[in-house]
Amino acid sequence: MYNKFFQTTEFYLIVIISLLFLTIGSQNSAFFSINNMFDLIRSGIVPGIFVVCALIVLVSGGIDVSFPAIAAFSMFTTTTILSEAGFNGPIIVPFLIGGAIGFILGIINAVFIALFKLPTLIVTLGTSSLFSGFLLTFIGSSQISNLPTSMLNFSKMQILKFTDETGIVVGLPISVLVTAGIVILVSLLLKYTMIGRSIYAFGGDPASAERVGFSPVFIQFFVYSFVGMLSGIAGIMHTSMMRNSNPVDLMGSELLIIAAVVLGGTRISGGHGTIKGALLGLLLVITIQNSLILMGIPSYWQRFVIGALILIGTGLTAVQVKKTNAKRKSILT
Amino acid sequence: MESPLIQLENITKSFGGVKALKGVSLTIQPGEIHCLAGENGCGKSTLIKVMSGVHTPDHGQIFINGKKYKHLSPLEAIKEGIQVIYQDFSIFPNLTVAENIALGSELSAKRKVVSWPNMRRIAKEALSKINVDLELNEKVENLSVADKQLIAISRALMQKAKLIVMDEPTTALTHKEVDALFKVINGLKQDGISVLFVSHKLEEIFAISERITILRNGSNVISEQAKNMDTEKLVYHMTGRKLQDKYYDVDVKNKVPILRTDKFGLDHSFENVSIEIYPGEIVGLTGLLGSGRTELAESLFGLLPATSGRVFINSKEIKIDSVQKAVKEKIVYVPEDRLTEGLFLEQSIERNIIASTVVSLLTKLKMLNQDKINQSVENWIDKLGVVTHSSKLPVKALSGGNQQKVVLAKWLSSNPNILILNGPTVGVDIGAKEDIHNIIKDLAKDGLGVLLISDDLTELRQNCNRVLVMNKGRISGEVRGRDFNQKTWSELQEA
């Protein structure tokens, strides 16, 4: 059992992240300060939900690039509605509206994918552009900064407050609990529920899943609407943390998120992947994004390093899979 | 007499004007081991799909446990205890053994939450029913084909199966594994579970079945107790022809081998293969799927360049490291899967035939010489007996047998010296099969060396002067074509 752990992608990721932490920390002691650590976590709150989304879709054998568009659409539409209505109610309302809008947009993806059986990448590329185009044309293109008070309060609420040596109060926004809750919930869903297992089964072999009695249409509808809803919630979190709703925010973040998930050991071909791995992949990407600058490396290098990591990371796993396959498939005994 | 478990009466089913089933009847008793036999394309698979509710028949009646079904749905079939084990087993390579076995029954129990200890318990119980022990937490992708099949069987048992349909279950099994499978099937019978064993392998049919139903061209031919049947009758009913043993012999004395390999090998696939093919010979090559026979053929054709050993063509050592090299040495390979590897399906028959020789059909200005093309194409269509109205039709409009002839024409038009055929008559109807056999024999008589890879015992016996058997990447035996039968095959396999 322990031997197996040392061969997992998670293990390699932990080693790489530890090395990276030690290297950066040895170059710049500010890296290990609570302030910086909290910064790392804070920058992972919204992407944390996105990696969960990307993971679910990849496990089901698809690929979704529309989640940032769905998030942007949900958050901007929700804030537009609420600010025009002069909303003054509790924070749960924007979350419900945002989640519902995301859910509906997810259903649109699902219709094309599950009913018309179109390739997932093509559909989500299309809807991604469609959603953001619709948003900018019909709903609005200028930022909204007078958010409802409950959303502003939500962004100010903090847990784990510390006063560091320089006298600055640092803490984690309460939204970290929402991400943590979603992560735990989806972990349980994937591991211990029939729908969760059916997503793995469908990703592993769609034809077999259908023969066993799973409904591919239901599975895909569930996957894309659920992911849409999570994206909507992520959008609301993003907007309240920024205290500002900008319809062009978040766009273009999909590739980095998918990259993080793939670095975490999820296979593009479906059926394989864990939340643990995806979160570790995200931690690696965020650390590179936020902290290379602490080592005095210019920020232009971030993209280069992340690109290289993806190629090396997936390359290594591919080589490993090839090797074990050759060993396993060897006819000669 | 007990009431039958399932009764199909006068089933017809058409697909776009093609009648796949023309009034087929089949009755299976509880606890019976029933064999459904027939050539490729005779309607066996369609009948299974009717039985399992995947296809709704156009006419005819289905009775299960005395209840009449007009539109049998897959779910109803499962509820009535009909379980089909398809050739690909319908398993999930990415999930564990326990999950693969238990997931289906947990699903039909309408559970929303899965309990892992519970699944492991179910899986253990299912495996113990057929006396098998497997590591429950292992991912199925790491298991052997035989183990995957056992998982599929135990999964079917968990669904309270009354009838287990096994579609060509022995294709990828070793003889030992086939024996083990037969033990499991007999065990199922003891428990009162019926098995419908779908096969075209004569020896297996007689070894296991109590009753045999034979289909030919979508019609019932006969349904009879196995003890009243013999090989000759079975072949007659399956093919509609008398089994006549004709053999192919050739004298190779004082000839130079056209192809010789010396300790030929490819890492992880095969090793130490030393064979000779003389002009005029048809050498059979058989072995289970995954024995390395396809890899050997692909190495000889330069697709998978060999990693050790030497090849001699007409006594001259040649290094075949690419397909271009092989073609230059006049070696031709007709692959197993003609649809994806051998043909341009959307393109015309003409273009397919000239694809490998187009360079020789040019005018001085490097333009296509249509007269030469027509001449060449007409010649081949005529020589091989391709049945078609026009050579301009796309290849996909042809039947399996005629497609295979086009593949042959494509390669033969390059005037090869060595012809490697992989499963040349798989999925080909019986008439075209004989045509293809005759073409191959004529080619050999003209001095070609032929390596014929096949699973079909009769095909090998009647067309090859020698048969080589491969096992686990090594040549495990050789026998004269006329002496090749199930017994010699098994002996050579295990040797």
Automatic annotation (TrEMBL), chain A:
Transmembrane ranges, per UniProt, are: 12-34, 46-71, 91-115, 122-146, 166-190, 217-238, 250-266, 278-297, 303-321
Decide whether keyword Transmembrane is in the record: yes
Q: Where found, per UniProt?
A: Cell membrane
Membrane topology field:
Multi-pass membrane protein
Give GO cellular component annotations, separated by semicolons. plasma membrane
GO MF annotation list: transmembrane transporter activity
| Predominant subcellular localization, coarse grouping | membrane
The record's keywords, sorted A to Z, are:
Cell inner membrane, Cell membrane, Membrane, Transmembrane, Transmembrane helix, Transport
| InterPro entries tied to this protein | ABC_transp_permease
Xref: PANTHER family: ABC TRANSPORTER PERMEASE PROTEIN YPHD-RELATED (PTHR32196:SF21), ABC TRANSPORTER PERMEASE PROTEIN YPHD-RELATED-RELATED (PTHR32196)
Q: Supply the name of the protein.
A: ABC transporter permease
Q: What organism is the protein native to?
A: Cytobacillus firmus DS1
- State the taxonomy lineage: Bacteria, Bacillati, Bacillota, Bacilli, Bacillales
Automatic annotation (TrEMBL), chain B:
Q: Where is the ABC transporter domain?
A: 6-242, 250-495
User: Keyword annotations for this protein?
Assistant: ATP-binding, Cell membrane, Membrane, Nucleotide-binding, Repeat, Sugar transport, Translocase, Transport
Q: One Pfam family, please name it.
A: ABC_tran
Q: Matching PROSITE patterns, A to Z? A: ABC_TRANSPORTER_1, ABC_TRANSPORTER_2
**Membrane topology, from the record:** Peripheral membrane protein
Instruction: Name one molecular function that GO assigns to this entry.
Output: ATP hydrolysis activity
Entry's Gene Ontology cellular component terms:
plasma membrane
Protein name listed in UniProt = Putative ABC transporter ATP-binding protein
InterPro entries assigned to the protein according to its UniProt record, in alphabetical order? AAA+_ATPase, ABC_carbohydrate_import_ATPase, ABC_transporter-like_ATP-bd, ABC_transporter-like_CS, P-loop_NTPase
Keyword ATP-binding: yes or no? yes
Where it sits in the cell: the answer is: Cell membrane
